[in-house]
Amino acid sequence: MTVVQPDVTVVIGAYEAMPYLVECLASVEAQTLDPARIEVIAVDDGSQDGTGDFLEEFAARAPMDVRVIRQDNSGGPSGPRNVGLSKASGRYVFFLDADDRLGAEALERMVAMADRNGTDVVLGRVEGVNRKPPRSMWGETLDRTDVYSSNIKFTLSAQKLFRREFLERHGMRFDESLWTGEDALFTMEAYLRADGVSVVADYTCYYLVGRDDGKHVTKSGSYTLRFDSARALMGLLERLVPPGPKRDVLMVRPFLVTVLPQFGPVFLRNDEETRRTKLELAKPLMDAYWNEGVAQRLLVHERLRLELVARGRADLLVDVLEFIQAKSKPAPVLKKRGTQLYLAYPHYGSPEAGVPDRTYLAEPREAKAYPGWRKNPTETFLRGFVRKVRRKVRRMRNRTARPGGTAAA
Is pLDDT above 60 for 404? Predict the structure, then answer.
């Protein structure tokens, strides 16, 4: 008898997942993709709430092939995912969290997208259920894109469709030494190594469910783990991307998503020892990776806070945070005939503070909201010209990258 390779292996790592697991598995069973084309590998990571038993019951009645692996608790999501990946036989792998669920057509649409475009990673639109989902990357469906020319860098969770041969060729696995951010490391590496990424934005493929029992992994853990996560991701970018604008674009993500929140309102509530420890943990990251190319891609208040972190100036940072927390608005300061706009957050123009004025300079996307600001005609022309060239290059690459595609004569 010929054994047909499944199209997709759904890997489910489950720990204390009841009752959320019920709807999760129901969403797998409801897939419009032929059950014969789906393989499920579910790893019970030492649960004590009946998760393992429910998985066994599901395996006994499900219309698709389901394998349940029960193991002692590994302490994090990386171990179960790696176990599932090592046992997978599908052409593609999808990592499904046990407290989330799939849209009914999710697997069918994502597999079709990958097959049609020959891409190694497919993102499906995400919606939140009692939880805030990523949003900026769902503007349009993209047959083929990359991490530089889209906003996919702001969704680094593992819930994507990955071509399994691609993962095996590069020996990719989740880092089991990380207690948080392991999915960001894995997914960013996949984006960087992939032969194209597709985005399904016109259908909700994934429902990100917020647990009300406080057990969701992203809500737990010490702040020190966040710095571990940032350090790992920045190190990956350093290894895989040469210095320059491309690396700067990607470095925005760990600075903005992982480092900056540690120096937000929570910093005002931290005691002096915690504040000092945070600055010590941040220092090697700021010394190694904070530069003008990253800074200019941020809003003024984001840039200012990180600049003060880089300088170790907790005293000035507290002033800025209190100003923001009070919902105060910085006065706009126009210069160079209105083509430069500075936002006068605390310590702007202060010789004693010593913060460069350029830290307060708003980039056009932020400055355009203020009356009196106008674009620099020379910069406008140059940026427009560069955008046109980039669009033309992307179109040519897309034509040649598609299976059977040829460059225009």
Answer: no
